[in-house]
Amino acid sequence: MSRILKHVGIIMDGNGRWAQVRGLPRYEGHRRGVEKVKEIISAALRLKINVITFYAFSIENWQRPKKEVDIIMELLQNHLKREINNFISQGIRFKMIGNRSLIPDNILFVIEEAEKATANCKQLLAQFAISYSGRDEIIRAVKKALQQHIEPEKFNEDTMNSFLDTAEIPEPDLIIRTSGEQRLSNFLIWQSAYSEFYFTQTLWPDFTDDEFTEAILDFQKRQRRFGKVSEFART
Fold first, then answer.
1. pTM (2 decimals)?
2. 124: β partners
3. Scanning 23, 27, 178, 188, which has its CA 20 to 30 A from the CA of 57?
C-alpha cells in the first residue's frame, strides 16, 4: 500500500455536533476528537503510510468564542506533552503546518519542542495543520519568494512548492472528510489539485480504524490519470 498511497490528509469534522447530539458540552467533543487522532495514527503506522496530515485548527477557527479556543489549545498542548514519548518510541515525526505568528507563545513553545524531539523519527510523518489556511499558506509562500527576489520567468510550480509549509512532502493522494460535509474548507488547496476524496457521514469522534482502512481500500480501487488518458482507453 505504501508504494501506491504515500500521504493521507484528514479534515476532522463533527466534534461539536457529536457532543451536541449527546447533550454534552462542545469541549467534550473536542476531547474525544483528540483521542481519535491517536487511534488513526496507529492505523496509519499499521498500513505503512508515509505521511498523515490532520486539519486540526484553521485560521478561521480563531474567530470562535474565546473559551472554546482556549480549551482546544489546552487539549493540543496536553496531548503533545502526553504523547511525545510515544511518538519517539514509535518513530513518529511531529510537524506543524500553519501560521505560527498567530499562536500563543506557550502553545508554540510546546509545538516546537515536539518538532525538535521527533525530528529524526522516520516511520511516519504526522503533520498537524494548526492556525492553518490554504490561502494564507500561498500568500506567505509568495511573500517568501518576493523577499528572495526570484525572477518571474524562473518562478514555476517547483519554486512555489519549495516555499510552502509542506515543502519536500509528497502531495496528498487521498483526503478524507468526516461528518458529511463535502468541501475542502481551505485545506491544502494547492497540494490537493489531483487528490482523491473520501467523504463519510461519520462524525470525527466516531471515525474508526476500520473505516479508515475502508477509505484506503476504496482509494486502491480508483484509477488516477492526472489528466492523461487511461491505459484501458488506449487499448
1. 0.92
2. 92
3. 23
